[in-house]
Amino acid sequence: MALPSLNGMRAFEAAARLGSVKDAAEELHLTPSAISRHIRALERNLGQDLFERGFRQITPTIRGSYYARSLSEAFEAIWRATDDVSLADGPTHSRTQRVRVLCVPAVLNLWLADRLPNFRKLHPAVELEISTSGKRANFDLAIVDEFVYKAGPALTLLIPLVLTPVCAPSLLEGPVPLRSPADLVNHHLIHECESMRWRRWLEQEGVLDTTPKSSTTLDDCTLIMREAINGAGIALADTMMAQDFLQQGKLVAPFDARHTYPAGIYLHQRRSIGNKPGTGLFQDWLLSEVEDHKRVMAIT
């Protein structure tokens, strides 16, 4: 049989890899309806459905998964071959080693930023361009936070969100005791966007009444950490938010208890960066830093 339309194969492969028609549209610079039309045309050409379609979600069929993997490998080979030819056209040192990185603000401000000087010292020829907003498809690498159930096959888990209460050392010496997790509700609790994280954590510790004496809701993790450092209340922080402040003694963890939240920090790698100068260096360095973080914070 004749090969199907290349547009249809590209649309299907991107939607299957990203787990989303919308994300596939962003990557290919098309509209979601155009992606859907291409996929439907491909399915008619092949004589079978490639996706099981539910409410606002798509799941490849068994044959669809096989086809998507095969197409991904084929497109990757094409991208790599193109990069190899491009590299052969001129000396490597004349090619820019700029790496575009998208990073969620909390990770950048509270963890990554203070580690970047070490990367620049190790790799002075690599120029980093880091942003905290934009479309993942427009960046070489994207460090993002996402709920587990929303993380598609295009995302690689760097670290799960492991939460523990943190506060200023002065609160441990204050008039309101912190002998057990049940004592937390007698303090001012600082919420990140909503109260679910605190309620879930307290319930996991067997606390029945999870309503705090008072609370504040903030949507900026850096501000949350500053509030906790200044003694304004107790924050529920993930290990990346808290690591440096705990090591500096600006914050303390009153309890050893830690619980995993159904979300994590993920890495998204844009297609066609296999041979791009600098990208592999930054990715390897980042993975090494994450492993060091896990070791220091005793995350298995």
From TrEMBL:
Entry keywords, A to Z: DNA-binding, Transcription, Transcription regulation
GO biological process: DNA-templated transcription
Gene Ontology MF term list: DNA-binding transcription factor activity; sequence-specific DNA binding
PROSITE patterns for the chain: HTH_LYSR
Keyword Transcription in record: yes
Sequence intervals crossing the membrane: none
Occurrences of domain HTH lysR-type (ranges): 4-61
Domain of life: Bacteria
Family stated for the protein in its record: Belongs to the LysR transcriptional regulatory family.
Matches recorded under PANTHER family: HTH-TYPE TRANSCRIPTIONAL REGULATOR, HTH-TYPE TRANSCRIPTIONAL REGULATOR TRPI
Name this protein carries in UniProt: LysR family transcriptional regulator
Species of provenance: Mesorhizobium huakuii
